[in-house]
Structure formats: C-alpha cells, structure tokens
Amino acid sequence: MNFKRYLTSLVCIYTFAGNLQAQDTLRLTRQESEAVFLKENLALLAEKLEIPQAEALVLQASLWPNPNFTLDQVNFWATDKQRGGQEVSPPFFGNVGRNLQVGIEVEQLVQTAGKRKKLMALEQVGVDKAKQYFEDLLRNLKIELRAELTNIQYLQLRKSTYLNQVVSVKQLTETYNKQVAAGNLPKAEYVRLKALELELLKNISDLDKELNASQKTVKQLLHIPAATFLVIDTADYWPSINTAQLPAVLDLVEQGKQNRPDYHLANLDIDYNNKLYTYEKAQKVPDLVLKGMYDRNGSTMLNFVGFGVAMDLPFFNKNQGNIKAAKIGVEQSKIRLKSAAHGLETEIVLAYQNLTNALNFQSQIEANYESGLDDLLKSYTKNFTNRNISLLEFLDFLDAYLENKKIIMEAAKDISEKKEELNFAVGKDILNK
Fold first, then answer.
1. The model's pTM
2. CA dist list (Å): 403 to 204, 241, 243, 411
3. More confident residue, 269 or 84
4. 238-284+321-433 adopts what CATH topology?
C-alpha cells in the first residue's frame, strides 16, 4: 500500500514538473506591456471601429434621395369597343402600341431649409463623439492596466523577500534538527523554527494567489495566451518623483478641461443638441417633390408630357413636439456640462491631495533605511546561528523586518497608484516614473 502511494506521489510530482516546463514565461517591462496593450487589446480594437462607422453615417447623410420612377396605366390588350374601332398596329411593326395606353412618372424629393447639410453636421458630431468614446475607453483601460502592473511588481518583490527568508530559515531549521537529534538543543526551538518556515511558505502561497489574479487581468488586457506566466520587470517600481515636481492644482484643472474625454463629450453633447435643435426647426419647412410625367393615350393628347410639384401643407404638424424636446435637450446638456466640470475639479483636487500625502509619507523613510534593514538582518541571523541571541529575539526582529519591508514597498506602490490616479483625473500623463 505504501509502495502504491509512493508511485502515485512520484507520478504527480513529475506531471506537475512537466506542466511547469510547458508553461511559457513572458518577461516584459511596463513600457513593453503598454505597447502590447495598445496593439492587441480587443476592446480597444472594437471601439476604434466605431469611428469609421460614424464617418459612414456622415457619408450617408450627404447623399441625395433617390428619384422615384413609376410605370403604370400599361394596357397590354383592349377590346374593339375600348379602341373605338381603331386598328391596332401589328406587333413590332410600324407604330407598335399606337392605340395602347402607358404612363411614366419620375419624382425627385428636394429637401428644403438646408436639411441635408444640417443632418451632415449632426452626424459629424457623432464622429467626434466616437473619437472621444475611444479615448475615454483607452483612459479607463490604461489606468486598470497600470494598476495591475504595479500590483504584479509589488507582489513579485514581496514574494522575493519571503523566498529569501525561506532559504535562510530552512538552513536554520535543518541545522537545529540535527542539533535536536544529537541532544544538544530542545525540540521546542526546532518546532518554533519549523512553524516560522511553514508560515513563510503560507505567505508565499497567498501572494501567488494574488499574483495569479492580477496576471489574469493583465493577460486579458494584453490578449496573450492564458497559459503564459507573466513576469514584469521591477527596475522602475520605485518612484522618483517628489512634491516639488507637482504642478499647481489650478493648472491641473485647466489641463483636465483640455484633455479629459468625458469633459469633451459633455461639450459635444451641447453641440449635438444645438445642431439637433436647428435640424428639427428645419423640419417644419415642407420638402418639395418635383415631378415629370409622360402619358400615352391617357387624355385628349396622344403623347402628353407634364411637370408638377408637390409639398405637404404645414397646417397641423409643424414639428412642434420635436422642436420643444430638442430645446429641452440643449438645456439639459448645459447642466450636465456644469456637473462634469465640478466633478473634474473635485477629482483632480482629491487625486492631488492623495499623491501629496503619499509623497510626504515616503519622505519620512530614510534613503538608506532599507539597506540598513538588510544588513541588520544578516547580523541578527549570524548572531542567532552563533547562539549570541535567543530565538525569541531573532523572531521578533524578523517580524519587524518583514513588516518594515512591506511598509516600504507599499509606500512606493501607493505613490505609483496615486500618481496614475492624478494622471487619470487630468486625462494626460503629466507625471512619469
């Protein structure tokens, strides 16, 4: 039974190792990730097609209505009584159908009051809106991608810290296990070190779960194979900006009004409703229908050619309802623009304050503090190995070390996130690493 379990375990280990080898690893920098994102993201590709689609509607609006052709009153046969004794020419000889009747009419709709140009202007706003919708989608997806890239870098660095400690603690555990077996040390200290080792491994496992979730999102945004293991270069994880580099908040508000696609959409909404109001007012002017007709044997004339014109008489329907609705739409869009402007200002101010707070906190961390922590850990590990300090002292420092490393990494992550939130609020990359 034990032999079967051993074989089963061995097969599982080799299968798992084979899967790991089959899994491709893709290493990217943040800049490379964004380049792939711009080229391969399916949501962006689909949204970009909205622009030529809107341009096609402008083309359609520019076309004249087709003329209407009517052929009627065709009489293929007639009785002698209907012909009044007139002879019918033999088919295909002489005046074929001389005594038969036929009517032909051509009509052409002519739009008045510049309706066609007004409709083209209306559809052109749709093109501008499609471009801004694309920019807005790009803006939202970009901040999502950058946040996930920062999170992956953060998790990779934290995992690396834990892996380094696992190697060190494993060596201590193995040494203590030999000493316990030799009767030189109490087993309780070995058990405490083993518990620490398992705790570190559990933390690594938890980080892997978070890493997998972030990788899933990034792989979807970059449209790369699901089985690919993604590694993001961490060289640019640590931000190098400071409060002195921040522009004035009022300048950022003005830049936001120039760059934010959602604010441009609010302005375009006013433009659209103004043009719609103009178009609806033009609709109350009746269109003309120009007519040309030919009638054979339908009247006292053998061949009758006539012209005419037709139009609706605007006695009852003067498009009053649509005109009123469009006018209300103009007022609504003006209110929405005020709301968008206020929302833009509050978002930029909040993002600015959050970034300032994050930078102020990082400034409290000394430049060489992290390297000092690493040196101190080496010293504690050496002293503990030489039995110069107790296990409790070593474990207390290790907890403080891991917590401080986490704080330092989170401070950098917080700055990166708040920087991207400010870029998002302004609608432009005003701050880089």
1. 0.84
2. 15, 24, 26, 12
3. 269
4. Outer membrane efflux proteins (OEP) (1.20.1600)
